[in-house]
Design brief:
heterodimer, A: alpha/beta, Aspartate Aminotransferase, domain 2, 2 domains, B: alpha/beta, Aspartate Aminotransferase, domain 1, seven-stranded mixed sheet, three-stranded antiparallel sheet, 14 helices, 35% helix, globular
Chain lengths: 462, 479
């Protein structure tokens, strides 16, 4: 297949206009020895029918959330996406456009991002939100970096309850020397406030509070922030699950300075971990520190409302090496997905998504405990928790095995897949247990099945 | 048009999740951790929500709407089959904590194909965008030099024609920047480069062809100069579409490259992302790639390595923007390596054809064989007071997306055109005709050009006002 529209005659006419005889001559400015080295293996193209068959085959080897109920979370959520979201995102004006550099031609994109910024402000309770960052982890790293830059201090206090990938991304960003990461130990699944107080000093740029944390537990956020305010001038960065904000106190209500997170659960599919969408919101005071695009409202000469990219003097294309971040492309389409999602589900639906998840998790805990499988941590949670186990890997494996025998064994297609890899039912192994997630897509029946199977699996490995 | 927050009709949104199957449960969240008031979301019925976003889409302009010769952005047509693939539940609805053999195979093969096409030995798909790839690549160089005990190499050389992301990325990775001048031919000034090479140099970041659309034909000499002083060579793949399948950065001496899947490999730009910026390295830098790395083992099985010892760590959760990678994979599979080469040839043909057509009416500062893009200026229109901005805005009235303007900064009043290979001759002829008419208007009725655009939903917005009094979210007017 090819996607170029030229006929042979047109190519010849164009070459003639340029004054060349062949397409090869277009590359006469490249040294011969470089051209000669470019010998590629033979890899012919494919017709669309063959390509589709091939892609369908690859997709078929994967186990999707359509195939089996997904109890995996840990930073990627099997969330429900209303049909209208996908339908609207498929509009070419949205997905084939570039960053809105020409406002007269891009009001739709600009307004949609302005609306997204408004949504993020309302969810987080903070003043200023940007147009999006790559994902939750890189958003957290960027927040730490602007805190270090803004406070002219280097230490970032990172609880050990932060998502391990996020923690690693922060450490990677810190390798430039802009910041030092100091881990704050946890006690019973959440940050130990005494340990936090002990770690605070006038060298601390920021304290991170994951809410809920990687193990699903709610952190003692109010206590932690009070300790920070009492013992330092550090900024408070809250890393939050946007869906939880339908129920939980917002970063703004807590008095945090920066909120970050991943808005994937708002309308973006899991897609094997990306593209997701990082969000960031800050207080008014930090407006000129926030990285990335910002859309602002203004007017044209006739007084019509207009939207533009603004405060660009922070950005790389203007400030170059003095910019506060290098970010250019972000995740505009996923931000749009979040905006469409929130508009379609509305205030009642959004609260229900959070409430349903939370109540399913509560139900699941009850069922696990009734069968003698207590949670590892006795703390409030939103919709994820850890069921205790000394051998989580084995337990997960046995669970998958049993689940398969009971529920998917009859299905030949799934059977074929099952031989080579685990499935989504098992949970994520963490130290001391299995991390399970309950989104609004789950049902009490699925949870009953899971608890049953995990109970039997536990016995099988004992 | 109204914001969706101004379309709030309480009681009109009927979307509900099922709640009747939930057993009663007691809250376990302490009262003081709960929100005091519900999130303030507007209520729109589904039909009004849909119409709102459709109306927004009518106020946007995509590649499918028409020629989008936005220089440096490679706004090529994005094949629809890629969109189809991304919707398959076996790609869209898969969780990254569950081994997914089809997806793993796809990622591995994409890495192999990118390695073939760039002449590199190993790839990571983790970076989410071009600038993210630059940061990753510069972190790899940083980690390697530190490992070699070369802690004093803190300077990254960057030509004055480079994208702004290059210096910003170098600084984020812990380096300082030393700018290398362009010569009168628009290429890296070799004398200036030689003078700036030294024992404190970590490397050079180079875009080739450069942002003037010119191939750095002295690249082997540049490579020798930088390597001889102990630095490494970083390839910014923003302009790879000009040479993909024809020449490879790995053969030019580059040690690290990033490629923009959303440019060269046809994945759509999404109005500002998601993109993907995979990074490739030569063998000696493989241990520094972010983990996990993915490779094919001896028996053909996909192997994930998480060698954390030398790796820079992670720059993104999970495996990167898989949903973008899969579209690039589909594109490469669809056109094949010959098709990629053909695309590069026609991208360069289109740029040169348009350059020749426009050179009759517009100043082209470097009017010589270019690659996928070229830069024009308003020099011939300036006497009548018509600026590049005016020309760009007038082009909108003719239903074209304007070129990139005021970049690169080394050309006064630059207009950077990149037509890409998916524009036909007749489309380019029509664009040239529109530009010709604008050139004529600049002479006869300059105020017409200066007042453009005339046919858009808004006139030129007041950007000073936006920056001076920033309104960055909607606030309900006081009752």
């Amino acid at each position: 297949m090819k996607y170029t529209p030229h006929s042979q005659g047109e190519i010849e006419a164009m070459l003639q206009t340029i004054g060349l005889e062949s397409l090869d001559q277009l590359f006469d400015d490249i040294p011969r020895e470089i051209l000669d080295q470019c010998r590629l293996p033979d890899r012919p193209g494919m017709t669309e029918p063959r390509l589709r068959a091939h892609l369908r085959e690859l997709a078929g080897e994967n186990l999707s959330a359509d195939d089996a109920p997904c109890f995996l979370g840990g930073g990627c959520s099997d969330a429900f996406i209303p049909a209208a979201v996908g339908e609207l995102l498929a509009r070419e004006e949205f997905y084939t456009a570039y960053t809105p550099y020409q406002p007269e031609l891009s009001q739709g994109i600009l307004q949609s991002i302005f609306e997204y910024q408004t949504y993020i402000c309302r969810l987080t309770g903070l003043d200023i939100a940007n147009a999006s960052l790559y994902d939750g982890g890189s958003a957290l790293a960027s927040a730490c970096a602007i805190a270090a830059e803004g406070t002219k201090k280097k230490t970032i206090l990172l609880p050990e309850t932060v998502h391990p990938d996020y923690a690693q991304i922060v450490k990677t960003y810190a390798s430039s020397g802009i910041m030092n990461v100091q881990t704050v130990p946890a006690k019973n699944g959440a940050t130990d406030p005494d340990a936090l107080t002990a770690a605070l000093s006038d060298q601390v740029a920021a304290v991170v509070i994951p809410q809920p944390n990687y193990f699903g537990c709610l952190e003692p956020a109010a206590e932690m922030i009070a300790a920070v305010r009492q013992n330092s001038a550090a900024l408070v960065i809250m890393q939050v699950d946007p869906v939880s904000l339908a129920l939980l106190k917002s970063p703004g209500e807590y008095g945090a300075d920066i909120a970050v997170g991943d808005a994937q659960p708002l309308g973006s599919p899991m897609s094997y971990g990306g593209p997701h969408v990082g969000f960031m919101a800050v207080t008014q005071k930090l407006m000129r520190k926030i990285p990335g695009r910002l859309i602002g409202e203004t007017t044209d000469a006739d007084g019509n409302r207009a939207f533009v990219l603004t405060l660009q003097a922070r950005e790389q294309h203007i400030r170059r090496e003095k910019a506060n971040s290098n970010i250019c492309s972000n995740e505009a389409l996923n931000a749009l997905a979040a905006s469409i999602y929130l508009t379609v589900v509305g205030p009642v639906g959004f609260r229900q998504a959070a409430e349903r998840s939370h109540r399913l998790a509560l139900y699941a805990r009850e069922q696990f405990e009734l069968r003698g499988m207590p949670l590892l941590y006795n703390r409030p949670f939103f919709r994820e928790f850890v069921v205790g186990s000394d051998t989580p890997e084995e337990w997960i494996e046995a669970t998958i095995d049993l689940w398969h025998k009971r529920y998917t064994g009859e299905d030949e297609a799934l059977n074929a897949k099952k031989i080579t890899f685990p499935d989504t039912t098992g949970g994520i192994p963490v130290e001391g247990g299995v991390l399970l997630a309950f989104t609004e897509k789950r049902t009490p029946e699925e949870i009953d099945q899971l608890v049953d199977v995990m109970d039997d699996a536990r016995e099988a490995i004992q | 048009m109204k914001l969706l927050f101004e379309k709030d009709v309480p009681g009109s949104n009927a979307f509900r999740f099922p709640m009747d199957d939930l057993p009663p449960a007691t809250e376990n969240i302490p009262h003081d951790q709960l929100r005091s008031t519900p999130v303030d979301l507007p209520e729109l019925s589904e039909v009004e929500a849909v119409r709102h976003f459709v109306e927004l889409s009518h106020r946007a302009f995509g590649v499918d709407d028409g020629t989008y010769a936005l220089g440096s952005c490679t706004m090529k047509y994005s094949p629809k089959v890629n969109q189809w693939a991304a919707q398959l539940p076996g790609f869209a609805d898969i969780h990254p904590n569950c081994v997914q053999p089809g997806a793993d195979h796809l990622m591995c093969e994409l890495q192999e194909m990118l390695a073939d096409l760039t002449g590199m030995d190993a790839f990571t798909l983790q970076p989410a965008a071009g600038a993210h790839g630059e940061l990753t690549g510069m972190m790899i160089i940083h980690a390697y030099l530190r490992d070699q005990g070369q802690n004093d190499r803190k300077v990254v050389l960057i030509p004055d024609s480079a994208h702004g992301t290059n210096p910003a990325s170098a600084v984020m990775a812990g380096f300082t920047v030393r700018v290398v001048k362009s010569g009168p031919d628009g290429l890296v000034d070799l004398d200036d480069l030689a003078a700036k090479c030294g024992p404190d140099v970590a490397g050079l970041m180079l875009t080739n062809p450069n942002t003037l659309g010119l191939f750095e034909k002295n690249i082997l000499e540049i490579s020798r100069l930088v390597h001889d002083c102990g630095g490494l060579l970083y390839y910014d793949g923003a302009n790879l579409n000009a040479i993909v399948g024809v020449a490879r950065p790995g053969d030019m001496g580059f040690d690290v490259v990033h490629v923009n899947l959303h440019k060269t490999f046809s994945t759509p730009h999404g109005g500002g992302g998601p993109g993907a910026g995979p990074v490739g390295v030569k063998e000696f830098l493989r241990p520094y790639l972010p983990y996990p790395t993915i490779r094919r083992g001896e028996d053909g099985q996909i192997v994930f390595d998480a060698d954390e010892e030398k790796s820079i760590g992670k720059v993104k959760s999970f495996f990167g923007n898989f949903g973008v990678c899969l579209k690039a994979y589909a594109y490469i599979k669809s056109v094949g390596y010959e098709g990629l080469k053909n695309a590069a040839q026609l991208a360069v043909l289109n740029a040169n054809y348009l350059r020749c057509r426009l050179s009759e009416y517009f100043d082209i500062p470097f009017n010589t064989l270019c690659k996928h893009e070229f830069v024009a200026s308003n020099l011939r229109q300036a006497p009548s007071g018509v600026r590049t901005l005016d020309i760009a805005k007038r082009l909108i009235d003719f239903k074209y997306h304007p070129p990139t303007i005021y970049f690169p900064m080394i050309v006064h009043e630059a207009m950077m055109f990149e037509p890409t290979e998916t524009e036909s001759k007749s489309r380019l002829d029509a664009l040239a005709e529109a530009m010709k008419q604008i050139a004529r208007e600049a002479e006869t009725t300059p105020e017409l050009v200066q007042g453009a655009p005339h046919n858009t939903v808004i006139g030129r917005p007041d950007e000073t006002k936006a920056a001076r009094n920033p309104v960055l979210s909607y606030k309900k007017p006081a009752q």
